[in-house]
User: Fold this.
Amino acid sequence: MSGVGYFDILKLAMPETIVSIAALVVLFVDLGIMRQAEGKFRRMVAALVTGASCLVGIFWMHQVGQEMGPGFLHGMLVVDPLTQFVKQGVLVLTLFTAWVSIDSSFTDHTGEYYALLLLATVGMMFLVSSENLLMIFIALELLSLSLYILTAFNKRNRKSAEAALKYFLFGGMAAAFTLFGLSLLYGLTGSIELRPVAAALKGKGLDPLLAVAMVMTVIGFGFKVAVVPFHLWAPDAYEGAPTPSAGLIASGSKVASFFILAKVMMLGFAGAEGSGAWRGFASGWVPLVAVVAVFSMLLGNLAAIAQSNVKRLLAYSAIAHGGYALLGVLTDNPQGVAALVYYVVTYALTVLGAFGVVSAVEERAGEARFSDFAGLCRRAPLLSFCMMIFMLSLAGIPPLAGFFGKFYVFTAAVGAEPKTLGLLWLVIFAIAMSAVSLYYYLQVLKQIYVADSSAEAPAIKPSAPFLVGIVLLATGVLVLGCAPDLLVGELAVAIKAAGF
Amino acid sequence: MLGWTIYISFLGAAILSLLPRDNARAARVVALLTALPGFAVALIGTFETSAGLNTFCDTPWVPALGIHYHLAADGISLTLVLLTGIAAVAGILFSWNIEQRAKEFFAFYLTLIGGVYGVFLSFDLFLLFVFYELAIIPKYFLIAIWGSTRKEYGAMKLALYSFVGSAMVLIGIIAAYVVAGAKTMSLIELAKYPFPHDFQMWAFPLVFVGFAVLAGLWPFHTWAPTGHVAAPTAASMLLAGVVMKLGAYGSFRVAMTLFPEGLNVWKVEPYAPRVLDSLLNHSLIANIQWAFHLFGFGSWRDVIAVLAVIGIVYGAMVALTQKDFKFVIGYSSVSHMGFVLLGLMTLNDIGFSGAVLQMFSHGIIAGLLFAIVGRMVYDRAHTRELDDLEGMQLSSALPFAAVTFVVASVASMGLPGFSGFVAELQVLIGAWRSFPTMAVCAGIGILVGVAYTLRVLQKAFFGEATQGASASSRQRLSDEALGPISIPERIGAVILMATTLVIGLYPRLLLDLILPSLNSPLFEGLRKAGAL
Assistant:
């Protein structure tokens, strides 16, 4: 520990500490004081505490610019500008998840819901800031367990229980794979830190055991980010879970998981990249990830066409977007990391907003079928407009954030081999697939703007604070698309400092 | 200054979305008050700026990627900006009768207009692409919500065709950006960059065709007739008048200036006798070239020129057999846009200026034709079937519409004195110099054009009510008297007719803008590639 006291560690882990304390506070306040209060009021207070803790965490990271390199505590807690940046992103997403939850009355256990939300966030934050295999696994489990419970939270709905069980069983299996892969890696190198692992692997070539470790790790993380063929839980979980929980699974959890996937692959398996170039194939983790990416884009986009439930559609589109994001991972250079982070953060903001709108509709209509959205623009013009922004951003229409995200990832992927344009085939495939995706996003918008609502369709009247949250998300998507430099400039600096 | 054309349009769309829901009158007025200043700015800008390339806004946008917010204009842009201004105003005048969800209609309309202005004024590739895609979505909603005949099908087809085309363009743009060192997206800078010959050979057709999908290049034109027919009047005026020009403009501005060597003659190695081995050993693009070579094509230029001529003749032939008035105009658009693409492939000054002039001229004439079909005839007679119209004797019921249509069809046929004549003549002269056979074939297209125009003129307006079948339609006609042509329609029609006449009588107004800009450094590459 070389002279580092507990107080110093606590200070470094201050944002995580704040969020953990907030989780306890939410529990105590809700259980102790507000047991008898009205549901809406309880949700409001809990969301306020959650949001406040997120804001304090963000503020802390912004103001107290600490730094502690990867050598510290065996890489258990890496505090550098890049991890701080991603953690701030995660906190913003949690803040908005709490925000769009305030209108959802699927449970009476308000305190527990928000506490679990915060615990999941702590898991994400530790996940993001770790370069230690053991710590990564623990954080992953903290995140996953919280998410399983959040998925099962709607006790009145059998689908919710089914979804959670599916999610849990698949997740448990995936965790076993991850652990197996990581333990092989430890056995091969005798280290549990990413950079020393890579150093020990250097020059050894692609050992069969290393290949197994690699595949296992990709399986484990592939499950977390829901890419083909480890995606089977996603549509059911998204459909059955309470919509705000699904929003968190699709947003914050995705950001953290993609970031750590990129880190493990780029740092831990450095030297075993191989090549995914057209006619220049060489085995390693890059072609492995490339195959997964191709199938995710293909299956996600094609299956989404056949959906008639907006939540399931978003689930398949999430699989497709997982494929695009993997392009950022297999770029294997700092530019790729920047593009990946930009992409997943903006994607998460967008999809969170979309789930927010879905939850508002679901709250009145009971379900999220296409027909429940028919004629929404007459019933809730503002929500409809926001949904249009979210859907078009997911489809990659400029000037929204989704477009710049795609552009950034694609340029980074092509730029990975600028001489031969080796990865251009992947980008061509991705662009072709994103042309397909416009079709199903337009189907949703067609219901909202073109179709007429049936006579008994309920009016949608979300509360004012909820609407403000959705509008803020939509504004964010628009602003980040028009002025991508707000994030891109900062990201470039952070990545340079992080030494990728 | 010209940048305000874009900002005013978007501002108008924003104001419209804040208006109360059911006040159609206010929405119309706001829309017109937005389009008029836009047109005024375009007009002033056109005649104030000097010849050549004028940059009026250039600031870093995403410095990390070398993307700039770069607005500029040369004579070609100015011509098309002017066209957009006129078409925007006329379109609003011809949709004065929109009552259903009027504010949304005009909000989408103005967003589309803003995007179109943006494309014509962008000199940064990224920015251009942003505006280009921005224009896709409003088109979808305009057609799907306010359209007629199979509107959802037509709208989706149009949106997907445009999006697939722009996906091809995006691939080309990203590849070009990376190959040039990932430092700049500026069109001017990239035009100077010597892209490798092999790269240009596949990037050129990809980007050219990607854009040309929107210009109605045969056989990717099929969105155009269905889209035009399904669209409400103002939207089909814009589609034919301006949006198709986006495609042609992109092909010219991006594909041809960045990858001029893509137009060069191929070096095709003989594949025989080991054809199968050769197929496997060559790249995809080489195989495609070889396959075309078998049919006697020597370069992408030949291929595209032939497709353009097929479009001219095929569009005209199909128009000749249509039963629906609007389909006739829809296919005639494909035919006329073929002249633009043929003009681009001539690679000489007169062909280029003819192509640009044809974009302008067709924009005006097609707008006028669609206005007559959609607004003056269909909104009153509630049918577009030529057989039904034949019995109505519209020339006596709607004399103003008949006169307008006579003028429009004369212009469309390319009679001297109207803009179409100057434009198509230049294209034909240019084509005659480059490939005489094609010029002859295109000339046949013009003859067929005269045939279908006269046919539709006779059937729609000067039909003789003798058959028994038309008795019912005549009955209907007398039941609901056709309302007179309203003032906004008259104004709109006069604006468009005057424009085509002025340009036809004094084409130098535009040629003085277009010709000098062909000498700008942007076209250096084309010049070196043996053109001009």
Q: What stands out?
A: The CA atoms of residues 386 and 474 of chain A lie 6 Å apart. The first helix of chain A runs from residue 6 to 12. The mean pLDDT of chain A is 88. Chain A touches chain B at residues 338, 377, 381, 385, 392, 397-399, 403-404, 407-408, 410-411, 414-415, 418, 421, 424, 427-428, 431-432, 434-435, 438-439, 442, 445-446, 449-450, 484-485, 488-489, 492 (CB under 8 Å).
